[in-house]
Amino acid sequence: MNENEDEIVQEEEEGTELELEALYRRYCVRLKHALFVSALCVTLLCTLVLLCAVCVLHSQELSTQVTSISSLSVISFILLSVLALALLPAAAEWEAFALTGSVLVTISLGAGTLMATHHAPLPLFALILMVHTMMPIARSIALVMATALTLAYIALAVGLGPRGQEDQFYQQLICELALLLSASGIGLYYRALTERAHRKTFAGTRTCLEQRVKLECEREQQESLLLSVIPAYIAAEVSHSIDLHLLPS
Q1: Nearest alpha-carbon partner for 107 in 139, 152, 140
Q2: pLDDT tens digits for 47-86?
Q3: Long-range contacts at 40-43 (CB < 8 A, ≥ 24 apart)
Q4: Could you count the other beta carbons within 10 Å of the beta carbon of residue 83?
Q5: Under a CB-based contact definition with an 8 Å cutoff, are residues 20 and 199 in contact?
Q6: Are 136 and 102 in contact (CB under 8 A)?
Q7: Which residues form the Adenylate cyclase N-terminal domain (predicted)?
Q8: How far, in Å, CA of 194 to CA of 209, rounded?
Q9: pTM of the predicted structure, to 2 decimals
Q10: CB contact set of 51 (below 8 Å; sequence gap of 6+)
């Protein structure tokens, strides 16, 4: 009997651990979802401002900016669509939406950046940081997407080829590659720190709840023991007087 009871207790503890782990994952998903929505809002605002700036600054020669205006319009539409879906109440629980939305946003922003700026890695640096730190996807998927962006940029730069001064071109390309790799390194480091902090916060909250439940159980046991020894009305008076003494003066 004791062995069976121990097995039952162990199974209950394992079930509780699984439930707590699932709760922790939902907690992290909701945090990531909030960051993702914030990133979408900021990126959409910047894209619309850039689109308006292109239209205003080149109002006399819009025909020469068809590619830029079209790409910015498509990016704005994708960002707006993903943001509208992300604001739905149940969007935080959709793992498929989190992955699909992150991939769509990364592809649209990456393609637009590579089309508009052939030799300026700073926008890609910001995008890679965003992929690692603000998108609700697994670390491995974020690393694959960041690597794909870096390789696409290097391939495009090499494909366009140096326009004179090859030594300077390749030196600059190596520096830009180091910059993009540092973005992935910073993103991974930040993600590891935040996940550790979230785990510590969740563990502290769990400990507080367990202690509170334990105190409640001990209080119920004391009350039942008190009722088994003395009459109920006397036990109520004793319990009330104890509560009054425990209250801060």
Answers
A1: 152
A2: 899 889 888 888 777 777 788 888 888 999 999 999 998 8
A3: 40/79, 40/82, 40/83, 40/86, 40/105, 41/83, 43/79, 43/105, 43/109, 43/130
A4: 18
A5: no
A6: yes
A7: 19-242
A8: 22
A9: 0.72
A10: 69, 72, 73, 76
